[in-house]
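User: Continuing from earlier, I have the next pair ready.

Assistant: Great, send them over.

User: Here they are, in order.

Assistant: Folding the first of the pair now:
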Amino acid sequence: MNINSSKVRKEDLGNNYVSGYNYNPIRQEEIVLEGSFKKENSIKSMAIQKVNRTLRNFLLLLVLASFAGYYFAMTSEFNLNNLSHQISTLNDENAELENDLNKLKSLRNVDTRVSQSNLLQKAGQVMQVSAVGTVAPEAKKIKVSSTFDWAIGY
């Protein structure tokens, strides 16, 4: 009987043979599965993986929340800039309208002052004047000399 070999048969063990893995660790009659399999994880490593997965999901949730907050902040800033532009445009138009109103008020004030002081009055009656004959004045004639005196110099 050879117990140190890798293949042990039932006959070799005799009456001491008890079925089960705990009592027969040497028994390897034939390999059924071959390949590289994942090692069994310990409880500590499984707990660490679970904590890491939970923290990863929480961090992902925070990143998505920060993106949503950034989006809403940018849309609010865009709306505020748009409103600020509209306000400045309205202020400029308001200033122009106030200037026009001040001009109209000043013209109305001048008109009311003139009408109060009676500086401009309508003619009570129309005078007719007979036509006066006019004579055009004579134009002065300039004498032109036929000789020209030359000057020597520069």
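And the other member of the pair:
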Amino acid sequence: MGKTADKTTPMKKYPLRPLVDGASGSSRRPACSRWLGVILLCSLFGFSACGELRPHPATFEPQAYTAIAYRDLLAPGPAGLQAGQQVRVRAYFWQYLEYDPAMVRNYLTLLRYPIRWYQLQWFATYDTADLTGYYDLAAVTPEQADRYKLKRLDPVMLYGELARLGPGLYLQVFHIEKIAED
């Protein structure tokens, strides 16, 4: 019998095995509660990142838009600007963007506005013709982009509404007016 015990295969001991099995006394959370936590976390991020698409007004009334300084557009929070506020601002058009300026926030917005969100054409503006004060969170529809035919550094007056985009705001432009150089 001594010979048989010597020839048996020794048993491998895994030092982490008790932790995996929960034998150390720690309680494991069920898998469904982990998934529930992940879903809640994702939905929280999703709802906080959702943007808003505002309907265009039926008629255009320039006096209904509040004039703001361009620097207020760059920092809407400290300026006291809020979502839903109709504003007008003077700017210098730069170009329509080939990239998405708020990619992560926009992809999360697709959950809320799956079809209409891609109908926005983003563009960039500057505060001055000297290229200071870059702002790339302005958007129009493709039809508006075709209608206005803006060129680089055209001085324009933008009429639009500030709308939510995650924790910040973007300018959904409803009307663009070219301004003659002074």
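Worth noting for the second one:
The domain at 62-178 is CATH 2.40.50.140 (OB fold (Dihydrolipoamide Acetyltransferase, E2P)). The first helix runs from residue 2 to 7.
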